[in-house]
Amino acid sequence: MAPPPTEEERLAELVRDHDRWRGTECLNLLPSENAISPRARSYLASDLAGRYTLPLDTEFHGERIDNSYAGTRYADAIELLADAAARRLFRAKHATTRPLSGHIAAMSALAPLLPRGSKVLAVPAELGGYDGYAPGFLPAILGYTSRPLPVPGPDRPAPEGPLLEEIRRERPAAVVLGQSFVLFPYPLQAIAEAAHAVDALVLYDASHVLGLVAGGEFQDPLREGADVVFGSTHKSFPGPQGGILFTDREDLFGQIEPALVWRVFDNAHWHRIAALAQTLLELERWGAEYARGVVGSARALAAALNERGLPVLGSEHGFTRSHQLHLDREALRTTHGLRPGLLARRWESQRLIADLVGRLGTAEITRLGLLPEAMPRLADLLVRAGVGREAVADEVLAWRSEFPTLRYA
Fold first, then answer.
1. How far is CA 374 from CA 3, 174, 184, 354, in A?
2. Which of 30, 210, 226, 313 is the most exposed place for a label (fewest CB within 10 A)?
3. Cα dist from 41 to 44, 101, 239, 306, 387, whole Å
């Protein structure tokens, strides 16, 4: 009898199983995930993964130095290349690729720009907003008062009137725009005019829609009045897990950049920055085509599901203008007796991956090459597996095998 595997062997097996299962045997419809290119992935496994660099150009421990470490010439050049690519792609005057995540990017903007005791307006979690802006989370840590922005929910575009009235009434230090459940753009230009009239900043959390912004879809935050844009780099943006921040305002960037190291984080993970740089360069070439495909597929999939009796929110507004579509949870319960979580578990057993709260996303399947014309077929599989409880895993596997390489890479 063979001895049981060691923990190292078991770990290696688990990683191989994960890579095979999620990388080649499933169709991923999670709106908060994406697939990165092989070249970007290779940089994550480079020697950069264990290295430091800390440019200072200051007196440090009694010595005048330009960096706390030697041997950093290539890491420093990679960061400069990444930041320059970010400025070009987002048409921004200033950018940093150092934030470790979208959440850390938010802290990197909020903490240096708003003093303790400030009031912020943000979309509440119960209306699709990011939980991190709820009163008990980032506002509690940073000493802010958080008040809700009166949006109608994620299933329809937000009208200007209530938003502008609340900004004028509350007179916050900042309006934070951005949601976890996001289908439609904001009336950003009007929001920015109202906010700036009361000396409030407009901070745009593009975590979910960053890849669409990069490709010229959904919204153009800087041109529409946002003061600072930040977000995650691994949702609709097809890069490594991490964050990014950019702005046109030199005065604000001059407060943000010095507050990064030793305040919000320490080492910035240079292998991630190299992988992010690669993704930025890829989207300079293919971002517009990719973003059009993502949004087109989201709208097509939403319509196809709705036609097949799986209710989707937002039909009267074209369902979505982002990479997300949202199941109508109440109609799902009354029509089929199903909850989104149960539906997602049925799909998972058939190699179809979604989240358990009723969101579907088309960013990763677009990278595989599933474009709008393929959405009726995908909708058929989702309905058959989720509502009809049919065994479609073999069909999904066969279809997935037709897309061995990523597009836009």
1. 48, 42, 23, 18
2. 30
3. 5, 17, 9, 36, 36
Q: How far is CA 98 from CA 228, 229, 297, 339, in A?
A: 15, 14, 32, 39
Q: Give the span between the Cα atoms of 40 and 151, in whole angstroms.
A: 37
Q: Please say whether the beta carbons of 180 and 122 come within 8 A.
A: no
Give CA 184 to chain center in angstroms: 15
pTM attached to this predicted model: 0.97
- Give residue 55's pLDDT: 85
C-alpha 220/C-alpha 90 separation (Å) is 9
Instruction: Give the model confidence (pLDDT) of 71-108 as tens digits.
Output: 999 999 999 999 999 999 999 999 999 999 999 999 99
HSE toward the beta carbon, residue 356, CA cutoff 13 A: 5
Task: Please give the Cα distance from 198 to 204 (Å, whole number).
Answer: 17
CB 63 within 8 A of CB 302: no
Amino acid letter for position 191: I
For 88, 98, 201, 271, 300, the CA distances from 247, given in Å and listed in that order, are 12, 14, 12, 24, 33
Q: Measure the CA–CA gap between 116 and 106, rounded to whole angstroms.
A: 15
Query: What are 56's two structure tokens?
Result: 């200072």
Q: How do beta strands 243-247 and 201-205 pair?
A: unpaired
Based on C-alpha coordinates, what's the Rg of the chain?
Answer: 22
Contact 115, 140 (CB under 8 A): no
Task: Enter the tokens of residue 120.
Answer: 């912020």
Nearest to 105 by CA among 276, 250, 246: 246
